[in-house]
Amino acid sequence: MSTPKLDSLFRIEASRESNGRAQCDVRALPGQVAPTTFSLTAAVDITLVRAVSTTVQPPQEMNGTAELNVTYLRQPIGTAHVDCEVTAQSDTVRLVDFTVSDADGVLARGRGTYAMTVQRTRHQ
Amino acid sequence: MNTQFIELIRDWKSHPLLVELDVSVTELSPGRALLTLTRNTTNVAGVRNSINGGVQAAVAEIAAHLATSTLLEQGDQIEFTQDLSISYLYSVRATTTLIDAKVLRQGRLTVVDVEILVGDEDEDSGRLNAKVRVTCSLGRRPSKSVVTK
Question: Residues B60-87: what's their mean pLDDT?
């Protein structure tokens, strides 16, 4: 999943994704010392989608995020790291657990549900 | 528009995220913030040519902070978002989208209900696209007075 404009806007960098897992770093917006939780919330959804994209097997197709729940334990300090992992899956759903951390450790945890569809082949 | 919050609106209008995402403050009153998000080449980055889910969640969080800001007492501040839950119901493909944030509970933990709706210009005007609940942690601003021994 490529979202270069949003990556730039929310300062999402160094994205890595493979085998049901995606990670990125989120830097502070210009004039700020740490990323805002708005940026982290956006980064979590974007990274979650990237993690799901590595698990798609035709005829499955990506349909969209259904639910996202994030709990922040504290404000971030400096650059934050988002780590999303697909922890359970079916033909119609991907369950993604994620952690947001910084130099002081974990600052947020959460879970997302991503909806999938299965492309039906038409019989002639 | 309630003139009581002109300064607050001015602060948020200049927020780079809101400018780039084409978000404007439409209505602000005690305990409520109504924002308008207009489709542009930055915010459309989701499946089926829709507005990105991360953008929706981020703007909902901003709207919740703005609604909370209208009720802050002297010396109080929003420390951080403690919890955010969003249920995406439909893809957001309208020309304009409304983000309507209403404070449900005011206190050290302030709970805000946010609805993401199809804007007035579209056929499905008023349809609920996503439902969000945001909990904000409030605190006191550090006192400027310095205590010396």
Answer: 94
CB-based contact B95:B38 (threshold 8 Å): yes
Both structure tokens of B70: 């209208």
ipTM: 0.92
Using one digit for the tens of pLDDT, what is the confidence trace for A79-118?
A: 999 999 999 999 999 999 999 999 999 999 999 999 999 9
CATH number at residue A52: 3.10.129.10
Whether A9 and B84 lie within 8 Å, measured CB to CB: no
Q: Give the DSSP per-residue string, B74-131.
A: TTEEEEEEEEEEEEE-S---SSEEEEEEEEEE-SSEEEEEEEEEE-TTSTTTT-EEEE
**What is the band of A56 on the pLDDT scale with cuts at 50, 70, 90?**
very high
Please state the pTM of the whole predicted model.
0.91
How many structural domains are present in chain A? 1
Place of tokens 């549900």: A113
Selected residue of A1, A10, A29, A38 to mutate for chain B interface (largest B Cβ count, 10 A): A38
CATH number of B3-140: 1.20.1250.20, 3.40.50.1970, 3.10.129.10, 3.40.800.20? 3.10.129.10
Q: Does a structural domain hold residue A31? A: yes
* Res. B12: pLDDT tops 90: no
What's the domain range around A95?
A: 4-118
Those residues of chain B whose CB sits closer than 8 Å to some CB in chain A are: 16-17, 20-21, 41-43, 45-48, 50, 52-55, 57-58, 61-62, 79-88, 91
